[in-house]
């Protein structure tokens, strides 16, 4: 790995980590960088394991703080003991969103980023609400129960889209601007 690719990789890693840390700041429900982090990693890391590993680890670390510090204090009846993992359905959607980034953002432009961001929001909605239906005993395991789970997620969908669009704008525009300022970042894809 050359100095140039190391520097670029570090910049990408720090951008994703900063996005994950922004989850710790007060924000409206579901206005988070979750989808954007996965798309960004998928778009810019050419080593596939980094495209998944960096955003997943950043997400997991922010989940550790959220679940064990912030949410544990806000909802003491719900959080009993140390929580090592977040919602597995969220992580599954995160991996699938990374694949969208790899596939559709090989060439980054505003149209592709907006389209991938909207697609990520829809995918997140479908996977996580399907997961809620699968594991939550309040939803009967029928078509009606599945529709009820999707219906319960509708109020959060707008904010998920907003979060994905805003954070995609910040991450992708920020990195593209940085590339225009520092030639060292102008590789086609990071390693």
Quick summary of this structure?
The chain is an all-alpha fold and 191 residues long. Helices cover 73% and strands 0% of the residues.
Give a structural overview.
With 191 residues, the chain is an all-alpha fold. It has a single domain (3-185), classed as Arp2/3 complex 21 kDa subunit ARPC3, CATH 1.10.1760. It is 73% helix and 0% strand. The chain has 6 helices and no strands. It has helices at 3-21, 34-44, 48-74, 88-104, 110-135, 143-181. It starts with a helix and ends in a 10-residue tail after the last helix.
CATH topology: Arp2/3 complex 21 kDa subunit ARPC3
In the CATH classification, which architecture applies? Orthogonal Bundle
Q: How many strands in all?
A: 0
The domain tally reads 1
Q: What general outline do the C-alpha atoms trace?
A: globular
What is the makeup of the main sheet? none
Question: Residue ranges: pLDDT <50 for 5 or more in a row?
Answer: none
| Percent of sequence in beta strands | under 5%
Instruction: Look at the structure and give the CATH class.
Output: Mainly Alpha
Keywords: Membrane, Transmembrane, Transmembrane helix
Transmembrane segments: 50-70, 82-102, 114-135
InterPro entries: DUF6580
Indicate the topology.
Layout: H1 3-21, H2 34-44, H3 48-74, H4 88-104, H5 110-135, H6 143-181
Keywords: Membrane, Transmembrane, Transmembrane helix
Transmembrane segments: 50-70, 82-102, 114-135
Which features characterize this protein?
transmembrane helix; mainly alpha; membrane; 73% helix; single chain; 191 residues; DUF6580; transmembrane; Arp2/3 complex 21 kDa subunit ARPC3
